[in-house]
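Morning run. Coffee first, then this:
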Amino acid sequence: MWHDDTLALRWMGHSTVLLQHRGETIITDPFFRTRLYHLRRMGKLPEPGFEGDGRRLLILISHVHHDHLDFPSLRRLHAHATVVVPPGAGQYLAARIPQTVVEIGVGQELRTEHMRVIPVEALHGGRRWPGFRADVQGYVIHAGATVYFAGDTKLFPHMEDMGQRHDIDLALLPVWGHSPRLGKNHMNPMDAAKALALIGARSAVPIHWGTIRPMGIRDHSFMWRPPHEFVLHASVFAPRATVRILKTSDEVVIRAGSGLCRFDQRAAM
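And here it is:
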């Protein structure tokens, strides 16, 4: 049995992270598919990894791009779950998925028995083909440890203010994308390291890398290189932070307290 001040975490590829604390579960930007248009998933497709009372499951959506808001993936999750979406996306989702949809934005928060979810600013495109648009946001999650889930965003100065307000234990930071060329409004490994320094988080896990790629490309180095480059840049820009590169089969337990954030390895869920 894990202590009440711990948070179990599993990175499930791309921007999908599973967080569990005191019997409650959060899943971010769920993506449980082997194919999305011209993109193919590399490696084994993980199971959603959640069993139990869906009323204790929160699904956080950062923005409406197809690799972050995926309807087939949402339909694989419990129908009694609650899906949290940015402003402008609520009605659009509610008509397409079985779960309860709650729309909240920056300056608001959602509380459960043991967690607090607070939307925070992100700078990224909010358009979804063929013309739908909604806001974009990250989330700060208070659940034993304090976790910042960036979603998709470019580097911006207000990250420092956000970090000071929330005292972040763990930052889940995107370090690349899903093609050899990084699109605009994303962070590369150096940007992510600078973000880590601005936020002042005690630890970080790189996300949004190594999961999906376009068909027909020959250079696959972008699938594995970014998190290692992030570690190198973080050693310069945020030398006091602990960075952990996870595999999708890993589960770790975050222990926060006394100004520390420690990773303890645990068997996969």
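The mean pLDDT is 91. Good start to the day.
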